[in-house]
Amino acid sequence: MSNGRFPIQTVNAISPVGLQRLDRDIFDLGTDIAEPRGILVRSADLHDRPVPQSLYAVARAGAGTNNIPVDKLAALGIPVFNTPGANANAVKELVIAGMLLAARSLYHAADYTRNLVAEQGLSGQALNEQVEAGKKQFAGFELPGKTLGVIGLGSIGVLVANAAQSLGMKVLGYDPAVTIKNAWQLSPNVEQVESVEELFARSELITLHVPLIDSTRGLVNTERIASMPRGAVVLNFARGGVVDETAVLQALDSGHLHAYVNDFPTEAGAVHSRVITLPHLGASTGEAEDNCAVMAVDQLQDFLLNGN
Ligand code: MLT
After folding, report:
1. Other beta carbons within 10 Å of 1
2. Ligand 1, atom 8: nearest CA belongs to which residue?
3. Would the keyword tRNA processing turn up in this protein's UniProt record (predicted)?
């Protein structure tokens, strides 16, 4: 492998049935490859694309499948594979980074200092005075002893729970979809709560690791935020629609929430002074991209060549 990245040649080499890589964001189905048997996609939205007659399978290099018309494909007998777990460590590390950024207001503090120099042109004594005067607003809190609520105990949620415990946090977990027994075996010190309401009411920080489906849309809403302790933090590395952003912004403005870390940018969130907005970076490490690509190709290859 050159430079540690997924070797594109290998994709072609293992694929006597027509897998190719297109070096563009959008797969222009039906013209770039006349008769694709398999499609491997990361973030391109396939919903409005015609389904090629030749297609046998689709693989998503990632956990979520919101960009793929899964039901339409299922009706045609075309399976969709995803890569659960392959990017879990990358997301976990970003969640931990997000908690630290939020707890110490690092993003906004750095912005403050940059502004003093770049926008206000301060230097020397004047800069030092403004630094001293301004730093009180960024006084933070420490993580040990704080309660983290993890919603969704799949591969990412369990890693986050374990990492948070190693930082001395108390971890509550809620996931109606996962076999509770499995989740609790993987993360034995997580306290299982009975309801999502209990988790909100007891958590000073909440992190989301559920897919966007009907039952999770708007899961973080006005009432649940209001039940959280004052000064709480919400981290969203799941999907934008899981959070009612208007409710979050109101709670930030009223001071009820301390910060919102969001991996799904919106205009309102990106300019809010208590929101840390990231450009969907959860899975963006070389290692995670390699893991996802390899797992997705393996699945496609297995299905197309061996029928598994
Ligand atoms: C996922 O669903 O795992 C992520 O959206 C992957 C990605 O960022 O491409």
Report:
1. 8
2. 283
3. no
Atom of ligand 1 nearest to the CA of 289: 9
Which domains are seen in the chain, by residue range?
2-86+286-306 (3.40.50.720), 88-104+140-277 (3.40.50.720)
Task: Specify burial of residue 308 (Cβ count, 10 A radius: 0-12, 13-18, 19+).
Answer: exposed
DSSP 3-state of 187: coil
As annotated, the active-site residues are: 267, 280
- Residue 253: count other Cβ atoms within 10 Å of its Cβ: 12
- Rounded to whole angstroms, the Cα distance separating 189 from 95 reads 19
Q: Separation of 25 CA from ligand 1 center, angstroms?
A: 14
- Decide: 193 and 174 in contact? Cβ < 8 Å: yes
Residue 283 alpha carbon, nearest atom of ligand 1: 8
| 19 burial via Cβ count (<10 Å: 0-12, 13-18, 19+) | buried
pLDDT digits (tens, 9 = 90+) for 95-118: 999 999 999 999 999 999 999 999
The string of pLDDT tens digits covering residues 175-234 is: 877 655 666 666 778 998 989 999 999 999 999 999 999 999 999 999 999 999 999 999
Q: Is pLDDT above 60 for 145? A: yes
Residues with CB under 6 A from ligand 1: 42-43, 62-64, 87, 280, 282-283
**Nearest protein Cα to ligand 1, atom 6:** 62
- The SS3 of residue 269 is helix
Residue with CA nearest ligand 1 atom 4: 62
Condensed to tens digits (0 to 9), the pLDDT of residues 37-60 reads 888 888 888 999 888 888 999 999
pLDDT bucket at 23, cuts 50 / 70 / 90: very low
Task: Calculate how far, in angstroms, residue 292's C-alpha sits from the geometric centre of ligand 1.
Answer: 9
Atom of ligand 1 nearest to the CA of 281: 8
- What's the CA-to-centroid distance between 281 and ligand 1, angstroms? 8
